[in-house]
Amino acid sequence: MIREEEVYKIGVLTKTHGVSGELNLSFTDDVFDRVEAEYLVCRMDGILVPFFMTEYRFKSNSTALVTFEDIDTEEKARKMVGVEVFFPKALTDEIEDDSYTWSYFTGFEAIDESSGHLGQIVRVNDDTMNVLFEIVSPDGKDILVPACEEFVTNIAHKERKIYLNLPQGLLTLEEE
């Protein structure tokens, strides 16, 4: 049985595509393309179930068309719409430190060397020239932090934590 702490959410199956069981996967992390992943985990009726991929192809930088074994009709695919998709943490060991994208850190806990625990990265905003981590602190406060290699001091993939050394005063800019 797959346990919640063994996986992390990477997306949602949003709609069917065609009549042969293909599904649209809206993802926040393309980790399934960067490691040898044979399957993705879907939450079905509250239970985490592995679904083996037979094929996938990217539509954009945040959506892919996915085909799973035994999901070969539009009717079967329709039952999968709205299902959350997860990735096994154990497979993230295969990721080399220079092969991840900033969106990989969605869901990670952000920890600053001087300020401590900042909160969870809920989104990576790449709408502007400077990519930003959108963090929600434990007290519900929204924090924006530049996603910058120079600020990253350590990455704990299994624990899903990113350690940062932010410039002094960066976190208090909005307060002034």
What can you tell me about this protein's structure?
- This protein has two helices and twelve strands.
- It is mainly beta and 176 residues long.
- The protein has two domains: 4-94, RimM (Elongation Factor Tu (Ef-tu), domain 3); 102-172, SH3 type barrels (Roll), CATH 2.30.30.240.
- The strands form two sheets. A six-stranded antiparallel β-barrel has the order 1-2-5-4-3-6. Strands 10-9-8-7-12-11 form a six-stranded mixed sheet, with no helix packed on it.
- A hairpin with a 4-residue loop joins strand 11 and strand 12 (161-164).
- The longest helix has 5 residues, at 74-78.
Short description:
The protein has helices at about 30-35, 75-80; strands at about 5-15, 20-25, 40-45, 45-60, 65-70, 85-90, 110, 115-125, 130-135, 140-145, 150-155, 160-165. With about 180 residues, it is mainly beta.
Question: In terms of topology, how is this protein built?
Answer:
Layout: E1 7-17, E2 22-27, H1 31-34, E3 39-44, E4 47-58, E5 63-68, H2 74-78, E6 84-88, E7 109-112, E8 116-125, E9 132-136, E10 142-146, E11 152-156, E12 161-164
Parallel strand pairs: 7-12
Antiparallel strand pairs: 1-2, 1-6, 2-5, 3-4, 3-6, 4-5, 7-8, 8-9, 9-10, 11-12
